[in-house]
Amino acid sequence: MDRGERLDLDAFASAFSHAWARLGKRFLKVECWQSYRENVNSASQRAYEQGEHDRAVELLREEAEADRPLYADVRSRGIEFARIRVLRQPLTDYLRYELPAYRIRARMGETTEVVRADPGTPLPGVAVERRPGGPAAQQ
Question: pTM of the entire structure?
Answer without folding.
Answer: 0.73
